[in-house]
Amino acid sequence: MRLSPPAALRALALLAAGTLALAGCAGQPGSQDGDAVATAAPTSTLTISAAASLQRSFDEIAKEFTAAHPETAISTIAYDGSSTLATQIVEGAPVDVIASADEKNMAVVTDAGLGGDPVIFATNTLVIAVPKGNPGKVKSLADLAGATTVLCAPQVPCGSASATLLQNQGVEVKAASQEQNVTAVLQKVIAGEADAGLVYATDVAGEDAVESIVPAGAEQVVNSYPITALGEQPGAQDFVDFVLGLEGQQILKDHGFGSASAGADG
């Protein structure tokens, strides 16, 4: 059957439109079977070791970092005392970034030929933590001598800082226990197993189960936190740069850490 000229023109127009539509579908990458374009999978995975006192801040930093760097995944952040982390790394633990709570334990790593030049990214000071209600009636460092007091072990940054603070103030304390990281000290105070413990100011921030007392001389004993990338794993230096950048520094500040210029290691 022959079409009239107007009908023939309409048929040609419909055929052309159909051809263009098919061509458009064929040109859409990832549109086969109606699937959306897939998000690229991470091409690098990081393992990070960080001082126990960094846990809340680094958990948040890791979340924001991976959102800004989808090409890099963080498989593990191991939180512990800096001395423990340094020993693990020197003994061969596969770690891409280390963030220590002091320069002494970072030196253990770098003196072994691992990592680049560490950069100070935060500072911290000590407070006396007591259970809610302060049942031991602790008011000062001097009161720790007669109270059940928990401290960090001497080789741990918070333990070294505690020893310096107590010595500076002429106070001698026989600790009920010496813990391998500051989190363990805080947990014993929260559990009521101790009248008091010396922890970092950041550890008690937002912790409703304890009260804190800023002891005399605390501002003179400042822990400096260094960070460095270990090896050449893609994304490791990006993480270090993120911690040192504006967003990372703001997160650390929000969690109570001082700036890198606030003082030297105590």
Using the 3D structure, state the CATH architecture of the largest domain. Answer: 3-Layer(aba) Sandwich
What's the CATH C level of the largest domain? Alpha Beta
Q: Care to count the β-strands? A: 10
Write down the CATH topology of the largest domain: D-Maltodextrin-Binding Protein, domain 2
Helix and strand content put the structural class at alpha/beta
- What is the general shape? elongated
Strand content: 15-25%
Strand order within the widest sheet? Answer: 2-1-3-10-4
What's the domain count? 2
Topology pattern, helix = H, strand = E: HEHEHEHEEEHEHEHEEHH
Distance between the termini: 98 Å
- What is the CATH superfamily label of the largest domain? Periplasmic binding protein-like II
Gyration radius, rounded = 28 Å
Provide the residue-averaged pLDDT.
88
- Approximate helicity band: 25-40%
**Main β-sheet description:** 5 strands, mixed
Low-confidence stretches: 1-38
The number of helices is 9
Can you describe what's shown?
This protein folds into two domains: 44-123 and 225-262, Periplasmic binding protein-like II (D-Maltodextrin-Binding Protein, domain 2); 126-220, Periplasmic binding protein-like II (D-Maltodextrin-Binding Protein, domain 2), CATH 3.40.190. The chain is 36% helix and 21% strand. The chain is built from nine helices and ten strands. Strands 2-1-3-10-4 form a five-stranded mixed beta sheet. A five-stranded mixed beta sheet has the order 7-6-8-5-9. Helix 2 (55-68) runs antiparallel to helix 9 (246-254) and helix 3 (82-90) packs parallel to helix 4 (103-111). It starts with a helix and ends in a 12-residue tail after the last helix. The model is unreliable at 1-38 (pLDDT under 50).
